[in-house]
Amino acid sequence: MIVRNTELLRGTNRQVNSKNWSSTRLLLKDDDMGFSFHETILYPNTETKIWYKNHLEAVYCIEGIGEVEETNGLKHRICPGIIYALDKHDKHILRAFSKMRMICVFNPALVGPETHDPEGVYPLLSTGEKNVSK
Ligand code: 9YT
Description:
The protein is built from 1 helix and 10 strands, in the order H-E-E-E-E-E-E-E-E-E-E. It is mainly β. Bound molecules: (2~{S})-4-acetamido-2-azanyl-butanoic acid (9YT). (2~{S})-4-acetamido-2-azanyl-butanoic acid binds next to strand 2, strand 3, strand 5 and strand 10.
């Protein structure tokens, strides 16, 4: 059994920071669960273009208000209790109107240090790779 405390992972290499968000990665590829599991804090009044072309992601909101916009312009309000799943590797824009706390699951599992490239994509890394595009 794996038992971890998010608070104890902050400030370690399991916390990855970006301009608009901070992601604490509770479960990663090395844990061999078949997915990775993160707590992501989105900073208020931010807009992030994302395209996980190499991954599937499900995102469950537990705090805050925002919206996700599809490429066809359709906007979905996000608040606690809402999940969205990028089952078609959907390009999207994520807007946080307040601080938001999200639980995010990735398949395939992230290795650890991934952060968005200019297109909002995470590379497909294998365990051991430390070099990621910013
Ligand atoms: C909701 C979202 O995709 N935010 C970007 C960070 C990502 N969830 C992560 O790496 O935890």
